[in-house]
Design goal:
Blueprint: E1 4-9, H1 19-36, E2 40-43, H2 57-67, E3 72-75, E4 78-79, H3 85-98, E5 103-108, H4 115-121, H5 133-144, E6 164-169, H6 172-181, E7 184-188, H7 195-209, E8 215-222, H8 226-233, E9 238-242, E10 248-251, H9 254-264, E11 270-274, E12 278-281, H10 283-297, E13 301-305, H11 311-329
Parallel strand pairs: 1-2, 1-13, 2-3, 3-5, 4-5, 5-6, 6-7, 7-8, 8-12, 8-13
Antiparallel strand pairs: 9-10, 9-11
Helix pairs in contact: 1-2, 1-11, 2-3, 3-5, 6-7, 10-11
InterPro entries: Bact_Lucif_Oxidored, CmoO-like, Luciferase-like_dom, Luciferase-like_sf
EC number: 1.-.-.-
Pfam family, one: Bac_luciferase
Length: 330
């Protein structure tokens, strides 16, 4: 059953290591992913996080493009609420001019950080005039079209091949929006693994887009033995924070939950500890699960999020998965 495998990396900072170490581990992972035949390599955007080093995906993308030659490199994704659509289009048009046919622009709606970072990022913006997410996607479409006859500001340079566009989401609303704006949908199954929601979102996107299927993002960790994989992911936890205004956010610990609430200026909050959804086991076991998603939902491409484990374990995992799928990945 043919389908493509791609990767998402968040540049986790291991205990006792530095952010520079984490970024170099991401670079090594991207280089190896290209050698192994992965289709895309995406990097994330997280702000003011002590355990994650990738705060500026566009800067990291430029470096990764320079260190690789074939694999597509992109954002998974740019947190669009913080930025001018014009500036995002300029940046990715420039990247696509440096590496034609290899650049992906993935965008998301979340803030990608805690309230203090969000306020710092949006300090110069007038909340009353800031466009909503839907309007920003429309503006990006206009700027990325690179129409020389457009009378407005043009996001130069115009690349030989425009960046591919991806909307990251996990809802029916995201599916409808992506289809309406002509963007590829990446269903964030690593963040929301509810099977009923997945089915409804896939059906909505297929219907609204005229038959296209979303890409499916999943967290996955492969090891030589099922026991080792289970032991390594068994202690991973996600803390869901519920604020009085109805906002919810996932963080990595109770300490982070308390800090998020402090920055949001609230004391009346509650938390729930959740076990993250991570495919784990041997590469053969993970392949069977991917095959089943492909059979059931027609998934043509998976973006595999590597959990925040050691750099050597993340590297070994992608090597094992590629070996299991080598004939189809390549």
């Amino acid at each position: 059953m043919p389908y493509l495998l791609s990767l998402l990396d968040k540049s986790p900072i291991e205990q006792g290591h530095t952010a520079a170490d984490a970024l170099q581990a991401t670079v090594k992972l991207a280089i190896r992913a290209e050698e192994l035949g992965y289709h895309r390599f995406w990097v994330a955007e997280h702000h003011n996080m002590s355990n994650l080093a990738s705060s500026s995906p566009e800067a990291l993308i430029a470096y990764l493009l320079a260190r690789t030659s074939k694999i597509r490199i992109g954002s998974g994704g740019v947190m669009l609420q913080h930025y001018s659509a014009y500036k995002v289009a300029e940046t990715f048009n420039l990247l696509a001019s440096l590496a034609p046919g290899r650049v992906d622009l993935g965008v998301g709606k979340a803030p990608g950080g805690f309230p203090l970072a969000t306020r710092a990022l949006q300090l110069a913006a007038d909340p009353a005039s800031r466009p909503d997410f839907t309007d920003q996607l429309s503006d990006l479409n206009t700027y990325l079209a690179a129409d020389p006859n457009y009378n407005g500001a043009q996001a130069t340079p115009f690349p030989p091949t425009a960046p591919e566009r991806f909307l990251l989401g996990a809802s029916v609303e995201s599916a409808e929006l992506a289809a309406a704006k002509g963007w590829e949908l990446v269903f964030a199954g690593h963040l929301n693994g509810d099977p009923d929601n997945l089915r409804k979102t896939f059906e909505t996107y297929e219907r609204a887009s005229g038959g296209k299927r979303p890409i499916l993002a999943l967290a996955a960790f492969a090891a030589e033995s099922e026991e080792y994989a289970r032991a390594r992911v068994g202690n991973l936890r996600v803390i869901k924070v519920f604020l009085p205004n109805g906002q919810t956010v996932n963080v990595g610990s109770e300490e982070q939950a308390a800090e998020f609430a402090r920055q949001a200026g609230v004391t009346d909050y509650r938390t729930e500890e959740k076990v993250p959804s991570v495919l784990h086991g041997t590469a053969k076991q993970i392949r069977k699960e991917l095959d089943e998603f492909h059979r059931r939902y027609g998934v043509k491409e998976f973006v595999l999020d590597t959990p925040a484990l050691s750099a050597s374990e993340r590297l070994a995992s992608i090597e094992l998965l590629a070996k299991e799928r080598l004939s189809l990945v390549a």
